[in-house]
Amino acid sequence: MRMTMLxxxxxxxxxxxxxxxxxxxxxxxxxxxLRNLAETEVAAPKPARxxxxxxxxxxxxxxxxxxxxxxxxxxxxxxxIAIIRQEHDDRVAYARTEVDCGRRLFHVVGVASTxxxxxxxxxxxxxxxxxxxxxxxxxxxxxxxxxxGTPLAGA
Length: 155
Fold this sequence. Notes:
Keywords: Signal
Signal peptide: 1-24
Protein name: Lipoprotein
Oligomer: single chain
Structural class: alpha+beta
Low-confidence stretches: 1-29
Organism: Sphingomonas spermidinifaciens
């Protein structure tokens, strides 16, 4: 009986580890580091042609990379979910983010090497939290909020 339980626990752990978890090198103390995501094992070589060009997001705090908003939607709770692509040199990475525009909160829901895979990835970035002191997250949040029709609340 004990061996059967142990096997069940081990099988469950293996299944969870195979389901869309992301490379630990893209994390910093439980927070996904968006600034260098395209430099981690999460990223992939940039294809010759991208299916969705996206809208370039102004990010003065990170001039080494280009960030593109590919799509966004508003949730029933009033937050915005956005798919963002980071391009750095010849590599790309995708992030699915959630933004609470009225409360200035942000977190990464998923990261992946393709747009399709980012939809199902779980980034373990923690709960929505303040963007105070995080200029890149603030720039991304401001753009997503403006596009969703709910401007980012003042600091």
